[in-house]
Amino acid sequence: MTRVLVVEDDPQLVRALVINLQARRYGVDAAPDGVTALRLAAAQRPDVVLLDLGLPDMDGVDVLRALRGWTRVPVLVLSARQASDEKVAALDAGADDYVTKPFSMDELLARLRAAVRRTEEAPPVPERTVVETKAFTIDLCAKKAVRDGREVRLTPTEWHLLEILVTRPGRLVTQKHLLQEVWGVSRSDKSNYLRVYMAQLRRKLETDPSHPRYLITEPGMGYRFEG
């Protein structure tokens, strides 16, 4: 049974989440504050965490950082905070996804299933040396991309970007993280770098670059590789 830890101080929302999750045969623990959440996470070892940012005793981002000190459990942030910088802060702290309140229960459950599936199916990154899609194949050891049987010529910068994304399948990688890793800068005014290089990668790898299937943009936040 997949165990879910719900960290939320709104009793009505907690009740709705517990009912919906238990109806789909998830095991559920609930914590109304950060301290309880960290204690339950250590004791129950959940398979996924649904985390509200506005907790009564501590900020949800601090709970997230504490979790990331010892576990890679998928964390889906649930928050009424809609500002891009709030979302980026949570994602940079290690969140796997960000769902803005109010949200559709069906959408939340779909994202939860996706997070659990990625954890179950994805082999550890160091062992995953070849990433295959229907359109192209990436050999991480050989640093080579192949499409339609032919090697795709990538610049060092294009390769670096692609490598970061494909080794985090399904996870949103923020603009700030990519800028820092590839160019050593974190200023958002340099995000045009990313747009240019991502457009180049799509032209070289995607079947339909104007409607990408694998290199996905999350507007205002970053990019995601969907394998």
Into which percentage range does the β-strand content fall? 15-25%
SSE string = EHEHEHEHEHEEEEHEHHEE
- Please state how the strands of the largest beta sheet are arranged side by side: 2-1-3-4-5
Q: Overall pLDDT, averaged?
A: 88
Radius of gyration: 19 Å
Kindly report how far apart the N and C termini lie.
26 Å
What is the structure about, briefly put?
This protein has helices spanning 11-23, 34-44, 60-68, 84-92, 105-121, 156-166, 175-183, 191-205, and strands at 3-7, 27-31, 48-52, 75-79, 97-100, 130-132, 136-139, 144-147, 150-152, 172-174, 215-218, 222-225. With 227 residues, it is α/β, with parallel strands linked by helices. The strands form three sheets. A five-stranded parallel β-sheet has the order 2-1-3-4-5, with helices on both faces. The protein has a four-stranded antiparallel β-sheet with strand order 6-7-8-9, with no helix packed on it.
Topology readout:
Elements: E1 3-7, H1 11-23, E2 27-31, H2 34-44, E3 48-52, H3 60-68, E4 75-79, H4 84-92, E5 97-100, H5 105-121, E6 130-132, E7 136-139, E8 144-147, E9 150-152, H6 156-166, E10 172-174, H7 175-183, H8 191-205, E11 215-218, E12 222-225
Parallel strand pairs: 1-2, 1-3, 3-4, 4-5
Antiparallel strand pairs: 6-7, 7-8, 8-9, 10-12, 11-12
